[in-house]
Amino acid sequence: MTANSLNVYEEPLVICGTSPMTGAFRDGCCRTDINDRGTHTVCAVVTNEFLQYSKSRGNDLTIDYPAYGFKGLVEGDKWCLCVSRWIEAYHAHVAPPVILKATHIQTLAYISLAELEKYAH
Q1: 81: helix, coil or strand?
Q2: Cα 82 to chain center, whole Å?
Q3: Per residue in 68-81, pLDDT tens?
């Protein structure tokens, strides 16, 4: 088993979401490698509060992008977030809940498991 397929508990990474299809590689998993420029490792259940925050930071995840088959996110959708954006939202007190078994182990290079567990879904 490679680190690319492990979650924060060092167990096999589970699927974050497939409707909409998420992940840097659009396979439903919050996997990462050197080609994932955003480090999309945090499996979150997005909230309206987070979506508005992300929009205010220049990334409107609610907009449809038909060319990419993306219909925009709504509250309750599961999405692989960039770890840096999740941490920004955490510091702004608007971080969405996290599905830890679907959150990639690489996330722990940026924030502790103890902090993530406070947001466990």
Answers
A1: strand
A2: 6
A3: 778 899 999 999 99
Q: Are strands 78-82 and 40-45 parallel, antiparallel or unpaired?
A: antiparallel
Domains of the chain: 3-117 (3.30.56.110)
Q: For residue range 14-23, list pLDDT tens digits in order.
A: 999 999 999 9
The span from the CA of 8 to the CA of 65, in Å, is: 31
Q: Please name the amino acid found at residue 46.
A: V
pLDDT confidence bin for 1, thresholds 50/70/90 = very low
DSSP E strands in the chain: the ranges are 40-45, 78-82
Cβ–Cβ < 8 Å for 100, 1: no
Question: Under a CB-based contact definition with an 8 Å cutoff, are residues 29 and 13 in contact?
Answer: yes
